[in-house]
Amino acid sequence: MRNNEEILLLLENYLAQIELPSEPQYLYAPIIYSMSGGGKRIRPTLVMLSCEAFGGNAQDALPAAAAVEMFHNFTLLHDDIMDNASVRRGKPSVAAEWGDNVAILSGDAMMIYSYRLLSQVPAHLLPRVMEIFTTTALQVCEGQQYDMDFETRQKVSVVEYMNMIELKTSVLLAGAAAIGAVLGGASDADSRKIYRYALELGLAFQLQDDLLDSYGREEELGKKIGGDILEGKKTCLMLNAMSRATEADRETLRSTHLDESLKPEQKIARVKEVYDRYDIPRLINQQISLRFERALSILDTLEIPMERTEHLRVFAQNLMGRKK
Q: Which residue of 13, 141, 157, 256 is 20 to 30 Å from 130, comparing CA positions?
Protein backbone atom coordinates (compact mmCIF):
# COMPACT_ATOMS: atom_id res chain seq x y z
CA MET A 1 0.00 0.00 0.00
CA ARG A 2 1.20 3.49 -0.87
CA ASN A 3 1.38 6.12 1.84
CA ASN A 4 -0.22 9.55 1.55
CA GLU A 5 2.87 11.21 0.06
CA GLU A 6 3.26 8.51 -2.59
CA ILE A 7 -0.42 8.78 -3.48
CA LEU A 8 -0.16 12.55 -3.87
CA LEU A 9 2.90 12.27 -6.13
CA LEU A 10 1.14 9.72 -8.32
CA LEU A 11 -1.88 12.00 -8.57
CA GLU A 12 0.08 15.15 -9.40
CA ASN A 13 1.94 13.34 -12.18
CA TYR A 14 -1.35 12.13 -13.64
CA LEU A 15 -2.98 15.57 -13.48
CA ALA A 16 0.06 17.13 -15.15
CA GLN A 17 -0.33 14.73 -18.08
CA ILE A 18 -3.96 15.57 -18.80
CA GLU A 19 -3.90 17.20 -22.24
CA LEU A 20 -6.50 19.86 -22.86
CA PRO A 21 -6.91 21.63 -26.23
CA SER A 22 -5.19 24.97 -26.66
CA GLU A 23 -8.17 26.50 -28.45
CA PRO A 24 -10.45 28.20 -27.77
CA GLN A 25 -7.92 29.75 -25.43
CA TYR A 26 -10.42 31.47 -23.15
CA LEU A 27 -12.21 28.19 -22.49
CA TYR A 28 -9.24 25.96 -21.69
CA ALA A 29 -6.57 28.31 -20.31
CA PRO A 30 -8.65 29.03 -17.17
CA ILE A 31 -9.07 25.29 -16.59
CA ILE A 32 -5.32 24.71 -16.74
CA TYR A 33 -4.82 27.75 -14.49
CA SER A 34 -7.32 26.42 -11.96
CA MET A 35 -6.11 22.83 -11.93
CA SER A 36 -2.46 23.79 -11.58
CA GLY A 37 -3.13 26.33 -8.85
CA GLY A 38 -2.17 24.14 -5.93
CA GLY A 39 -4.70 23.04 -3.35
CA LYS A 40 -4.36 20.15 -0.97
CA ARG A 41 -5.87 17.54 -3.34
CA ILE A 42 -7.76 16.18 -0.33
CA ARG A 43 -10.62 14.56 -2.20
CA PRO A 44 -8.73 12.75 -4.97
CA THR A 45 -6.17 11.55 -2.44
CA LEU A 46 -8.99 9.96 -0.47
CA VAL A 47 -10.32 8.23 -3.60
CA MET A 48 -6.96 6.53 -4.06
CA LEU A 49 -6.32 5.76 -0.37
CA SER A 50 -9.76 4.22 -0.05
CA CYS A 51 -9.21 2.13 -3.18
CA GLU A 52 -5.96 0.67 -1.85
CA ALA A 53 -7.39 0.11 1.65
CA PHE A 54 -9.84 -2.37 0.12
CA GLY A 55 -7.21 -4.15 -1.95
CA GLY A 56 -7.27 -2.16 -5.18
CA ASN A 57 -4.46 -0.37 -6.99
CA ALA A 58 -4.38 3.42 -6.71
CA GLN A 59 -3.10 3.58 -10.29
CA ASP A 60 -6.45 2.23 -11.47
CA ALA A 61 -8.31 4.88 -9.46
CA LEU A 62 -6.49 7.83 -11.07
CA PRO A 63 -9.20 8.75 -13.64
CA ALA A 64 -11.91 8.79 -10.97
CA ALA A 65 -9.67 10.73 -8.59
CA ALA A 66 -8.96 13.30 -11.31
CA ALA A 67 -12.70 13.53 -12.04
CA VAL A 68 -13.40 14.33 -8.40
CA GLU A 69 -10.68 17.00 -8.37
CA MET A 70 -11.92 18.49 -11.65
CA PHE A 71 -15.45 18.68 -10.27
CA HIS A 72 -14.25 20.25 -7.03
CA ASN A 73 -12.36 22.94 -8.92
CA PHE A 74 -15.40 23.59 -11.11
CA THR A 75 -17.40 24.38 -7.96
CA LEU A 76 -14.70 26.82 -6.86
CA LEU A 77 -14.90 28.76 -10.14
CA HIS A 78 -18.63 29.22 -9.70
CA ASP A 79 -18.37 29.85 -5.95
CA ASP A 80 -15.98 32.72 -6.59
CA ILE A 81 -18.49 34.34 -8.92
CA MET A 82 -21.32 33.98 -6.40
CA ASP A 83 -19.12 35.26 -3.56
CA ASN A 84 -17.56 38.01 -5.68
CA ALA A 85 -14.17 36.62 -4.60
CA SER A 86 -11.13 38.08 -6.30
CA VAL A 87 -8.54 35.72 -4.80
CA ARG A 88 -8.29 31.92 -4.75
CA ARG A 89 -5.27 30.12 -3.25
CA GLY A 90 -3.27 33.32 -3.12
CA LYS A 91 -3.79 34.12 -6.82
CA PRO A 92 -6.46 36.05 -8.73
CA SER A 93 -9.58 33.93 -9.09
CA VAL A 94 -10.56 32.87 -12.60
CA ALA A 95 -13.43 35.36 -12.49
CA ALA A 96 -11.05 38.16 -11.50
CA GLU A 97 -8.51 37.18 -14.15
CA TRP A 98 -10.84 36.53 -17.10
CA GLY A 99 -14.29 37.76 -16.06
CA ASP A 100 -17.48 36.08 -14.89
CA ASN A 101 -18.61 34.86 -18.31
CA VAL A 102 -15.36 33.00 -18.93
CA ALA A 103 -15.42 31.53 -15.42
CA ILE A 104 -18.98 30.27 -15.92
CA LEU A 105 -18.25 28.59 -19.24
CA SER A 106 -14.86 27.16 -18.19
CA GLY A 107 -16.52 25.84 -15.05
CA ASP A 108 -19.21 24.17 -17.14
CA ALA A 109 -16.52 22.58 -19.30
CA MET A 110 -14.74 21.30 -16.18
CA MET A 111 -17.89 19.61 -14.96
CA ILE A 112 -18.40 17.97 -18.36
CA TYR A 113 -14.74 16.91 -18.52
CA SER A 114 -15.05 15.27 -15.11
CA TYR A 115 -17.61 12.90 -16.64
CA ARG A 116 -15.21 12.16 -19.51
CA LEU A 117 -12.60 11.16 -16.93
CA LEU A 118 -15.13 8.99 -15.10
CA SER A 119 -15.91 7.14 -18.33
CA GLN A 120 -12.49 5.46 -17.97
CA VAL A 121 -13.69 3.53 -14.90
CA PRO A 122 -14.01 -0.23 -15.61
CA ALA A 123 -17.36 -0.86 -17.29
CA HIS A 124 -18.68 -3.24 -14.63
CA LEU A 125 -18.11 -0.62 -11.90
CA LEU A 126 -19.16 2.45 -13.86
CA PRO A 127 -22.91 2.39 -13.01
CA ARG A 128 -22.22 2.33 -9.26
CA VAL A 129 -19.48 4.96 -9.47
CA MET A 130 -21.66 7.17 -11.66
CA GLU A 131 -24.55 6.87 -9.21
CA ILE A 132 -22.35 8.02 -6.31
CA PHE A 133 -20.81 10.83 -8.34
CA THR A 134 -24.04 12.28 -9.73
CA THR A 135 -25.85 12.06 -6.39
CA THR A 136 -22.92 13.80 -4.72
CA ALA A 137 -22.79 16.51 -7.41
CA LEU A 138 -26.47 17.34 -6.95
CA GLN A 139 -26.10 17.44 -3.18
CA VAL A 140 -23.20 19.90 -3.45
CA CYS A 141 -25.44 22.19 -5.50
CA GLU A 142 -28.21 21.83 -2.90
CA GLY A 143 -25.76 22.79 -0.16
CA GLN A 144 -24.63 25.87 -2.07
CA GLN A 145 -28.24 26.97 -2.53
CA TYR A 146 -28.98 26.55 1.18
CA ASP A 147 -25.87 28.61 1.94
CA MET A 148 -27.14 31.40 -0.30
CA ASP A 149 -30.62 31.14 1.19
CA PHE A 150 -29.18 31.61 4.68
CA GLU A 151 -27.68 34.97 3.68
CA THR A 152 -31.14 36.53 3.44
CA ARG A 153 -32.85 34.67 6.28
CA GLN A 154 -33.09 36.22 9.71
CA LYS A 155 -33.18 32.91 11.56
CA VAL A 156 -31.19 29.78 10.80
CA SER A 157 -31.00 26.88 13.24
CA VAL A 158 -27.85 24.97 14.14
CA VAL A 159 -29.47 21.83 12.69
CA GLU A 160 -30.10 23.61 9.38
CA TYR A 161 -26.52 24.85 9.32
CA MET A 162 -25.12 21.37 9.93
CA ASN A 163 -27.26 19.99 7.12
CA MET A 164 -25.98 22.74 4.82
CA ILE A 165 -22.28 22.11 5.49
CA GLU A 166 -22.85 18.37 5.17
CA LEU A 167 -24.18 18.92 1.66
CA LYS A 168 -21.85 21.72 0.60
CA THR A 169 -18.62 20.36 2.04
CA SER A 170 -18.80 16.86 3.50
CA VAL A 171 -20.63 14.87 0.84
CA LEU A 172 -17.91 15.41 -1.77
CA LEU A 173 -15.31 14.01 0.62
CA ALA A 174 -17.67 11.14 1.46
CA GLY A 175 -18.43 10.47 -2.20
CA ALA A 176 -14.70 10.39 -2.95
CA ALA A 177 -14.17 7.77 -0.24
CA ALA A 178 -17.09 5.66 -1.47
CA ILE A 179 -15.96 5.79 -5.10
CA GLY A 180 -12.49 4.64 -4.06
CA ALA A 181 -14.00 1.82 -2.02
CA VAL A 182 -16.07 0.61 -4.97
CA LEU A 183 -12.99 0.67 -7.23
CA GLY A 184 -11.07 -1.29 -4.59
CA GLY A 185 -13.69 -4.03 -4.40
CA ALA A 186 -15.29 -3.14 -1.08
CA SER A 187 -18.56 -4.72 -0.03
CA ASP A 188 -21.70 -2.59 -0.08
CA ALA A 189 -21.63 -2.51 3.72
CA ASP A 190 -18.04 -1.28 3.82
CA SER A 191 -18.71 1.26 1.08
CA ARG A 192 -21.47 2.73 3.24
CA LYS A 193 -19.20 2.76 6.29
CA ILE A 194 -16.31 4.48 4.54
CA TYR A 195 -18.79 7.05 3.22
CA ARG A 196 -19.86 7.74 6.81
CA TYR A 197 -16.23 7.95 7.95
CA ALA A 198 -15.52 10.68 5.41
CA LEU A 199 -18.82 12.46 6.10
CA GLU A 200 -18.03 12.77 9.81
CA LEU A 201 -14.46 13.82 9.01
CA GLY A 202 -15.71 16.47 6.61
CA LEU A 203 -18.05 17.90 9.24
CA ALA A 204 -15.22 18.03 11.78
CA PHE A 205 -13.02 19.77 9.22
CA GLN A 206 -15.63 22.42 8.38
CA LEU A 207 -16.42 23.10 12.05
CA GLN A 208 -12.71 23.51 12.69
CA ASP A 209 -12.43 25.85 9.72
CA ASP A 210 -15.22 28.00 11.16
CA LEU A 211 -13.52 28.07 14.55
CA LEU A 212 -10.09 28.93 13.14
CA ASP A 213 -11.53 31.80 11.11
CA SER A 214 -12.22 33.59 14.41
CA TYR A 215 -9.69 32.03 16.78
CA GLY A 216 -6.83 30.83 14.60
CA ARG A 217 -3.40 32.38 14.18
CA GLU A 218 -2.85 34.44 11.06
CA GLU A 219 0.76 33.31 10.63
CA GLU A 220 -0.35 29.67 10.59
CA LEU A 221 -3.43 30.09 8.40
CA GLY A 222 -1.90 32.51 5.94
CA LYS A 223 -4.95 34.78 5.98
CA LYS A 224 -6.57 37.44 8.09
CA ILE A 225 -8.60 36.29 11.07
CA GLY A 226 -12.22 37.32 11.54
CA GLY A 227 -13.45 37.36 7.95
CA ASP A 228 -16.65 35.51 8.81
CA ILE A 229 -17.42 38.01 11.60
CA LEU A 230 -16.83 41.01 9.33
CA GLU A 231 -19.20 39.52 6.73
CA GLY A 232 -21.84 38.74 9.34
CA LYS A 233 -21.73 35.15 8.16
CA LYS A 234 -23.98 32.60 9.85
CA THR A 235 -21.33 30.10 11.00
CA CYS A 236 -21.59 27.43 13.67
CA LEU A 237 -20.13 29.90 16.17
CA MET A 238 -22.66 32.59 15.35
CA LEU A 239 -25.65 30.24 15.39
CA ASN A 240 -24.66 28.49 18.61
CA ALA A 241 -24.18 31.88 20.26
CA MET A 242 -27.52 33.14 18.94
CA SER A 243 -29.28 30.10 20.41
CA ARG A 244 -27.86 30.82 23.89
CA ALA A 245 -27.53 34.60 24.08
CA THR A 246 -29.72 37.26 25.64
CA GLU A 247 -31.65 39.51 23.27
CA ALA A 248 -29.10 42.27 23.81
CA ASP A 249 -26.23 39.97 22.85
CA ARG A 250 -28.17 38.67 19.86
CA GLU A 251 -28.53 42.21 18.64
CA THR A 252 -24.77 42.65 19.01
CA LEU A 253 -24.22 39.55 16.90
CA ARG A 254 -26.73 40.68 14.28
CA SER A 255 -25.57 44.26 13.88
CA THR A 256 -21.87 44.61 14.73
CA HIS A 257 -20.61 43.89 11.21
CA LEU A 258 -22.81 46.74 9.92
CA ASP A 259 -21.57 49.33 12.42
CA GLU A 260 -19.52 51.80 10.36
CA SER A 261 -18.26 53.56 13.48
CA LEU A 262 -16.15 50.54 14.41
CA LYS A 263 -12.84 49.47 12.92
CA PRO A 264 -12.59 45.87 11.68
CA GLU A 265 -10.53 44.76 14.70
CA GLN A 266 -13.12 46.31 17.03
CA LYS A 267 -15.95 44.45 15.32
CA ILE A 268 -14.07 41.17 15.63
CA ALA A 269 -13.27 41.76 19.29
CA ARG A 270 -16.87 42.70 20.13
CA VAL A 271 -18.34 39.57 18.57
CA LYS A 272 -15.68 37.30 20.09
CA GLU A 273 -16.48 38.78 23.48
CA VAL A 274 -20.02 37.48 23.07
CA TYR A 275 -18.74 34.10 21.89
CA ASP A 276 -16.48 33.85 24.92
CA ARG A 277 -19.28 34.82 27.29
CA TYR A 278 -21.26 31.76 26.20
CA ASP A 279 -18.24 29.43 26.00
CA ILE A 280 -18.76 28.93 22.27
CA PRO A 281 -15.14 27.92 21.39
CA ARG A 282 -15.25 25.08 23.91
CA LEU A 283 -18.64 23.89 22.62
CA ILE A 284 -17.43 23.87 19.01
CA ASN A 285 -14.21 22.09 19.99
CA GLN A 286 -16.32 19.41 21.65
CA GLN A 287 -18.28 18.93 18.44
CA ILE A 288 -15.08 18.77 16.39
CA SER A 289 -13.59 16.10 18.66
CA LEU A 290 -16.84 14.13 18.66
CA ARG A 291 -17.02 14.05 14.87
CA PHE A 292 -13.33 13.27 14.49
CA GLU A 293 -13.39 10.39 16.97
CA ARG A 294 -16.58 9.06 15.43
CA ALA A 295 -14.88 9.03 12.02
CA LEU A 296 -11.90 7.06 13.34
CA SER A 297 -14.13 4.62 15.22
CA ILE A 298 -15.92 3.75 11.98
CA LEU A 299 -12.62 2.51 10.53
CA ASP A 300 -12.54 -0.11 13.31
CA THR A 301 -15.77 -1.64 11.98
CA LEU A 302 -14.59 -2.25 8.40
CA GLU A 303 -14.33 -5.86 7.21
CA ILE A 304 -10.63 -5.53 6.38
CA PRO A 305 -7.46 -6.00 8.44
CA MET A 306 -6.81 -3.05 10.73
CA GLU A 307 -3.39 -2.39 9.19
CA ARG A 308 -5.11 -1.57 5.89
CA THR A 309 -6.86 1.38 7.52
CA GLU A 310 -3.66 2.99 8.83
CA HIS A 311 -3.21 5.41 5.92
CA LEU A 312 -6.85 6.47 6.29
CA ARG A 313 -6.16 7.30 9.94
CA VAL A 314 -3.08 9.30 8.98
CA PHE A 315 -5.13 11.09 6.33
CA ALA A 316 -7.71 12.08 8.95
CA GLN A 317 -5.05 13.26 11.39
CA ASN A 318 -3.27 15.31 8.71
CA LEU A 319 -6.52 16.88 7.55
CA MET A 320 -7.32 18.02 11.09
CA GLY A 321 -3.75 19.00 11.89
CA ARG A 322 -3.51 16.43 14.65
CA LYS A 323 -0.45 14.53 15.77
CA LYS A 324 -2.21 11.49 17.15
A: 13
Residue ranges in the chain assigned as alpha helix (H):
4-17, 25-35, 42-53, 62-82, 94-98, 100-118, 126-152, 158-165, 171-184, 188-215, 218-221, 227-231, 236-244, 247-255, 264-277, 280-299, 310-320
Q: What span, in angstroms and rounded, lies between the C-alpha atoms of 133 and 139?
A: 10
d(CA 302, CA 280): 34
Greatest Cα pair distance, the chain, in angstroms, is 63
Is pTM beyond 0.70? Reply is yes
How far is the C-alpha of 257 from the C-alpha of 26, rounded, in Å? 38
Q: Rounded to whole angstroms, how far apart are CA atoms 10 and 45?
A: 10
Phi, psi (degrees; rounded to nearest 5) at 88: -140, 120
Q: Are 4 and 53 in contact (CB under 8 A)?
A: no
For residue 24, whether the previous peptide bond is cis, meaning omega lies within 30 degrees of 0, is yes
Give the other-Cβ count within 10 Å of 103's Cβ.
22
> In Å, how far are 49, 64, 108, 112 from 119, measured between CA atoms?
20, 9, 17, 11
User: Residue-wise pLDDT tens for the chain (324 aa)?
Assistant: 888 899 999 999 999 999 999 999 999 999 999 998 778 899 999 999 999 999 999 999 999 999 999 999 999 999 999 988 898 888 999 999 999 999 999 999 999 999 999 999 999 999 999 999 999 999 999 999 999 999 999 899 999 999 999 999 999 999 999 999 999 999 999 999 999 999 999 999 999 999 999 999 877 766 788 999 999 999 999 999 999 999 999 999 999 999 999 999 999 999 999 999 999 999 999 999 999 999 999 999 999 999 999 999 999 999 998 654
Give the number of C-alpha atoms closer than 13 A to the C-alpha of residue 20, restricted to the C-beta side. Answer: 26
Say if CB 201 and CB 318 are below 8 A apart.
no
